[in-house]
Amino acid sequence: MRVPLALILLATALFLAGSYYGLAVAPPEQFMGEVQRIMYVHVPTAWAAMLVLSWAFVCAIAWLLLGRLEWDHRLDAAIEMSIVLCFLLSVQGAIWAKPTWGVWWDWDPRLTTVAILLMAFLGIAALRRFVEEPIKRATWSAVATVVGFIDVPIVYYSVKWWNSLHQQQSSPATVSREFRIPLLINFAALMLFVAGAMMLRARIAAVRAEEELPPLNELDGLEATS
Amino acid sequence: MNGMVHGGWGYVWAAYLVTALVLGGYAARAFILGRVGRRLTDYEKP
């Protein structure tokens, strides 16, 4: 528990520093004014969500190819973190949308594809609750994660492929230094948080698996008699 | 009307507060589950 705790404490300190810079030091944006400060939490959340979803895909493929249960524990943690980040992304987006677009929600391609992603991963988490047999649960949720991951590049390119209210991705080269600093500090904070929380969550999944699976010698006995 | 968004500090605070609450709540839940799990395994050890 020490490493995850240290990572989460460090993440909290960085988030406080990044938020102080974003709220008190960075100037208001020319057109969006103070509301633009929401970007210092919304954009790092979006980057972290894309990375965690990609990690979930890697864990799913690793389980399907290698069949080692630790990959299922990592997948369990990544699925839960994907739900947390996609939910957060949608709520932050709604809070941003109201003062800038005039509505809390719009069936815009970016918002809709993120909502589909959230629903897909909620479905995968529900699937994990319903399937009691650990090996079946790992395989089915890994296959569902690979299928769900198809939406991730669609989310990324949705603002380029379709007419979207949501603005296109900015490049760091086009964002001034005062705006870039809180973005990067909060992104570092979020990644440390994600790493700590997912390490902890994967350990919990491992403890639960120990309770579910019979000891190895009993498994050998089952194979020998079947 | 010049296209600039005026005010909006309430929305900014709301976004930061939601972020802190969701992430803080998730971390607290994970630590509680971790401690309960560890206690259970310690208890069940012969």
Write a structural description.
The complex is a heterodimer of chains A (226) and B (46). Chain A has 226 residues and is mostly helical. Chain A is 80% helix and 0% strand. In chain A, α2 (39-66) crosses α5 and α3 packs antiparallel against α7 (177-212). The longest helix of chain A has 36 residues, at 177-212. Chain B has 46 residues and is mostly helical. Chain B has one domain (1-46). Chain B is built from one helix and no strands. The longest helix of chain B has 36 residues, at 9-44. The N and C termini of chain B lie far apart (74 Å). The chains are: A mainly alpha (226), B mainly alpha (46). The interface between A and B is medium-sized, with 40 and 28 residues.
Features:
heterodimer; A: 226 residues; mainly alpha; 80% helix; 0% strand; globular; disordered C terminus; B: 46 residues; 1 helix; rod-shaped
